[in-house]
Amino acid sequence: MSITVNGIDELKKLAGSDLGASEWIEVTQERINTFADATGDHQWIHVDPEKAAEGPFGAPIAHGYLTLSLFIPLFTELLDVEGVSTKVNYGLNKVRFPSPVKVGSKIRLVGKLASVEDVPGGVQITVDGTIEIEGGAKPAAVLQSLSRFYA
């Protein structure tokens, strides 16, 4: 379920609001392998199912940065800001990976629009995000993301 706002003034009114949860997406071995190819990180814990089955997690796991990169498509399910000229990722204040994402797991984002602050030409939003693992006791990632929207 996506919240749609039109312009910066409507976005400001959402400050402090829970944004809900995205749909679940499966983290497949194919997605992990594609990420490994894109980044050059082919560590066996990610891309060798036979060896990873004997490793500490009993299966291949997603790269932490793959999990983090999925924040953007998951976040776009939560909030759509229309009526702005430019949208940019500005950075992260903090990120933690409390639990690995095993191949075949499903993850989703739960988000809160922590703040909306004026910057020259637009606003900067801070989103508190938790990437949950379906059925998991701990989240895959806990993060605070910064994005900017320009009028």
Automatic annotation (TrEMBL):
Domain named MaoC-like: residues: 15-120
InterPro entries: HotDog_dom_sf, MaoC-like_dom, NodN-like
PANTHER family cross-referenced by the UniProt entry: MAOC-LIKE DEHYDRATASE DOMAIN-CONTAINING PROTEIN
Family: Belongs to the enoyl-CoA hydratase/isomerase family.
Protein name: MaoC family dehydratase
Species whose genome carries this gene: Streptomyces capitiformicae
